[in-house]
Amino acid sequence: MSDSILTSDDDALFDFIAAHEGDDPVELLLRASLYPGIDLRFAAGQIAARKLIRDKLPAWAHHPRLIFPSAKAAEQCSSEQTAAYKQSLISPSDRVCDLTGGLGADSYFLAQRAAHLTYVDRNSDCCRAAAHNFRLLGLDNIAVIEGEAEAILPQLPETDVFYVDPDRRPTPHRRVITPDDSEPNLPSLLPRLLELAPKVIAKLSPMVDIDRMLRLLPGTTGVHVLAVRNECKELLAVVERNPQGASPAVNCINFTSAGAETFVFDRQEEKNLTITHSPAVMQYIYEPNAAILKAGAFKSITRPGVRKLHPDSHCYTSDSLVAGFPGRTFTVDEVIPFSGSLCRSIRKAIPQANITVRNFPLTVEALRRRTGITDGGNLYLLATTLLSGQKVLLKLRPCKQPDARKCI
């Protein structure tokens, strides 16, 4: 990225990017001779990056003059919902340092609440783009520093909170999950960070095992599992220099079009709870959202009158409708025993349905192949195993939440 781009008053270049935002960047590059005077490589890169963040960071994607340093930075950035959520983890008086700034989405939202924020990244293009973008976005409480996280620590101003999002793709063809394989190596760096600041917030892969994470990051006082539209996106660990209490609270957040579903539980209490299983399917079925499933709140999520279908199903049932269950709620139309002969005949009665599999020997794809049921429509099929061991298909209709007063 040239410095001239960052200071360019070339309206034609940015007008071109806006006019071609729906085009295929590769096709644009192949037609470069048609656009003399336009830096097509830069324009195509910007269009590609804006496509990547169109849904998760729309305010930035549609800002006409923001610059995106790379497709990798755009792909790995936090969504608006998850970045804004992190504001709740700091105080207005905090001086925050984002040690792995990247595109700068998390820095942008944290800076809106923090007293001051220091953005750090080892990539010069990211740093120059971030400084440019922060100015355009009207933030005057951010300082941008280029450097490696480990090496830059002695140069940093006094800090109350470190925010770290380790790179899980340290090389183009290598993807890692655990924080001890990422860059920087957070478990190794953590003691030094806690010497310099009383709190560290780490963004980790949603694939990380929480028990392993807690072993690698001693001093974790809070775990935050963030899902967007029922897809788990991030795992946050809040680590403190002087932790209080033995068991960290686990916060499960699922951002939906209707708002955020929030559920908080204690992992130690979860282990000690007992749960009642239902020998039969009752009138209503409940499926916890992705954040709760990831966090493992399989016992804590139960409510009075709600029973689990099977120890391994993570689906629940009740005779009376429970409002506000954090997940999906269905009314049961029919319980269909599963068999080979059923696979050959069920498509006549149910040609189309949304299929979910929980504790069942077939995947969704395999079940569709065997039954011929196509995807879509308003009907739902849950393939699962009952307490008796019987395999069934549950024919369901969704219930509205959060009121859950009537079924669709």
Features:
408 residues, alpha/beta, Rossmann fold, 3 domains, nine-stranded mixed β-sheet, 16 helices
Account of the 3D structure:
This protein is α/β, with parallel strands linked by helices and 408 residues long. The protein folds into three domains: 3-75; 79-245, Vaccinia Virus protein VP39 (Rossmann fold, 3-Layer(aba) Sandwich); 272-399. The chain is built from 16 helices and 16 strands. A nine-stranded mixed β-sheet has the order 3-2-1-4-5-7-6-8-9, with helices on both faces. It has a seven-stranded mixed β-sheet with strand order 11-12-10-13-16-15-14. Strand 4, helix 11 and strand 5 form a beta-alpha-beta unit. The protein is globular, with a radius of gyration of 25 Å. 38% of the residues are buried. Mean pLDDT is 90; it is low at 402-408.
